[in-house]
Every structure is written in C-alpha cells, then in structure tokens.
Specification:
148 residues, 68% helix, elongated
Length: 148
Amino acid sequence: MTRAFLTAAFCLAALPVAAQSADDAVKARQGFFTMISTEMGTLSDMARGNTKYDEAAAVAAAQNLMALTGYDLPKLFVDGSSADDIDGTDALPAIWGDKDDFAQKYAALASATEGMDQAVAGGQENLGPALQAVGGTCRDCHQSYRAD
C-alpha cells in the first residue's frame, strides 16, 4: 500500500469520530442558526422599516438563506446532544424520538426558501409574505423540538 493511500484511509476513518462529537455538533448547529438568524434579521429589519429597503441586500440575504437550508442540518443532531445531555442547547430529546418528522420539518424550511431571492425583489411590500412563509416553518419546528 502506498503512503498516500494509508494517509487517506486514516483520515477517512477518523471522520466519523469527529462528526459524532456531541459538543462539536452543538457548536455547529448554533453557528448554523446564528447565520439563519442574521439573514432573517436583515430581511425582518427591512420589512418592519427599521432599515431602508435595499433590494440587493434583500436578495443577498434570501440567497444566503436558500444556500444555508440546502445544508444537511439533521446530521448534526447526533445522539447525546440534546438539552438533557448538554447545557447550552435548546434541542429537545423529542428530536431523537421522531427523526423523520424533524427531517420533514427541516425540509419544509428548505422548501419555504426556494425562490425567496426572487420573492423579496421589487419592493419592501414583498418581504412580509416571504418572511411569513419561512417564519412559519421555523415556528412549526420550534414548537415541537426547541426548549423555550
């Protein structure tokens, strides 16, 4: 066996161990949700009139949301990373009791962001409906799977 092959095999064998760290999974989830919150905040501030509507910024925020929701977030909900297991996370153990429903709720978020970049273009009045669709999917998941 070549040295390169052995190095690659070692690295690949180590990946599942690193990916399974509950602490790392929680940190990754929190980073993900911080990015979601940042982009939603940009759009929400414009929708409320707290900041001036800027079409380029609105479209960019929507495109970022679309890209973020394309990520396979459910894989970061590894065993041992619920609020019962780790301080500092709001993930309820119910996620692990119904992973299919959790994945469906996340898929609904991704679906709600489809075409959002086009939906938020054209004026401030377009932001509300787009935000309501996305926010509704957030609420649906939080009601079932997030501690208050």
